[in-house]
Amino acid sequence: MSQRELLGRRALRLAFGTALCLAISFGMDLPIPFIAPVLSVFLFASMPRPLSPKAGIGLVLVVALTTGSGLLLAPVLRYYVMSGVLLVGLCLFLAFRHGLGGGNHLVSTFLAAGLTMISAAGTADLQLALTVVGALVKGLLLAVLVLGMGHAMLPEPASAPRPPARPPPSRAEATRLALRAALVVLPAFLLALADPASYMPIIMKSVSLGRQSCTTTARSAARELLGSTLLGGAMAIVFWFALKWFVHLWMFFLWMLLFGLFVARRLYRLKPTRYTPGFWLNSLVTLIILLGQSVQDSVAGKDVYTAFIVRMGLFIAVTLYACLMLQLLDARPRLRRGAPLEQAGHAPPPSR
Predict the structure, then answer these.
(1) Is the pLDDT reported for residue 337 higher than 60?
(2) Which of the four, 155, 247, 263, 281, has the lowest number of CB atoms within 10 Å?
């Protein structure tokens, strides 16, 4: 199998798995149904091999136990707000630091999402927090099952080379990137404390931005973060009006398959672009979150267009803040590297 055929199979597997996970999640009316397809995007993009049953169950249990610990932070947030926010910030830092230090990036992403969503929900209502825990566990379990189905239908050749692993950053660099990612996620978490049920999509979006910020430089932050957010919003608008032509669950699946292929072809460089894979991954995640929440608003009888405009505005605000954090926290290392040069430039000439 040629390299292009291999990448084409991976692109088709990601698009098919995401669309199938979306259709099953909404068809079964799972709580917070957009979570399952978002998790499936991360799984298919990160794992070229299927998980064994033991590894899949282990991943679900680890995520359930670690994210369930967010229930312990809810009473602290309710009665000692400042201490609770600092604890959540520390947990976010440790979660991203674990992934950057050579740990499992998926676990660190799921942990960051679970801790923030569950602890924020727990400040309003314990039942809502338990619903979020159930949504994460069911969504991840569904994503793992669909991952196995995708590899069964479109198997990876045994001789296919594994994608080269990204070399881990130095300890100091990993600490700086983890701090930056935690600061990207924290404001969305603070916003969600005001109304956890309404701001769950904002938390998921900020976690995706935090994950993307670990591989994005300050120079390309606006193009990568803001550009992917705007593209995801534009695709969500086109998807919504296309879906209105014929509202059916299987059309939902087919349209998602089409949009997934559009993004996956660019993510796997079948159609080369100047944008990074992280740009296309964040665009697809943004599309799923916005579209899934709009479908939920429609079912609940809300004004879909007003809610979309407000949500998109919040997404842009969170993204602009993330760009600002990247600029501010990358300025100090640049100044530190430039300090010896400035000192050398002002040093007196050596005496003869």
Answers:
(1) no
(2) 247
- φ/ψ bin of 52: left (φ > 0), alpha (ψ from -120 to 50), beta (otherwise): beta
> Per 3-state DSSP, what percentage of the chain is helix, strand, and coil (rounded to 5)?
80, 0, 20
Determine the Cα–Cα distance for residues 120 and 129; give it in Å rounded to an integer.
8
- Evaluate if residue 317 carries a pLDDT over 70: yes
DSSP string, 191-239: HHTT-TTTSHHHHHHHHHHHHHHTT--STTHIIIIIHHHHHHHHHHHHH
Angle 3-27/277-299 helices, nearest 10 degrees? 20
pTM of the model: 0.85
Nearest one of 41, 52, 35, 37 to 10, comparing CA atoms: 41
Provide the residue type at 300 as one letter. Answer: A
Q: For the segment 41-93, what is each residue's pLDDT rounded down to a tens digit?
A: 988 988 878 788 888 888 888 878 777 777 888 888 888 889 888 998 898 89
Element (H, E) at 278: helix 277-299
What are 119-144's pLDDT values in tens digits? 888 888 888 888 888 888 898 899 99
List, in order, residues 6 or more apart from 204 with CB less than 8 Å away: 34, 35, 38, 113, 117, 285, 289
Q: Which of 332, 339, 239, 227 is nearest to 282 (CA)?
A: 227
pLDDT of residue 165: 63
Answer yes or no: are the C-beta atoms of 329 and 180 closer than 8 Å. yes
